[in-house]
Specification:
single chain
Length: 142
């Protein structure tokens, strides 16, 4: 399982860092200049300007990471050959859906039911996360 975790981190960090870089470049430099004029130090600028400005980006990255973790299929499939590994150590819900859909004859309906439950679970978790985040649909704070 640790190999899958490292592989997942290795494959997703560059995309998330690119998203963070675009979020950092979107911050207006006039805000930092005004903070310099007001006498703010580096830590004050970080916590009062940078962190609040990239909060929507952080919300997006966390939500995408959570969603992709629920849907993790390719790394466990590669590592275990689609079997779930010894004692099902690398078995994920997406791999269970694959096994019921394509490895066992006549259980496509059961795989569809699990996939529907996975969709509902991802929806519920994303709505809970969206409710507790400080960003609404328009991108403005509460």
């Amino acid at each position: 399982m640790w190999a899958i975790i490292v592989m997942n981190i290795w494959s997703t960090v560059p995309m998330f860092m690119t998203i963070y870089l675009s979020g950092l470049q979107d911050i207006d430099s006039a805000m930092y200049e005004a903070a310099d004029i007001d006498g703010a130090n580096m830590f004050q600028k970080w916590f009062k300007i940078t962190v609040p400005q990239i909060a929507p980006v952080t919300n997006y990255v966390v939500m995408m990471g959570l969603t992709s973790t629920f849907q993790l299929f390719d790394q466990p499939y590669i590592v275990s050959g689609g079997s779930g590994g010894p004692n099902n150590a690398t078995l994920t819900l997406s791999l269970v859906i694959y096994q019921y859909a394509f490895r066992q004859f006549g259980t496509m309906g059961y795989a569809s039911a699990i996939a529907l439950l996975l969709t509902i679970a991802i929806f519920v978790v994303s709505m809970i996360f969206r409710h507790f985040s400080s960003e609404n649909v328009t991108g403005e704070g509460r």
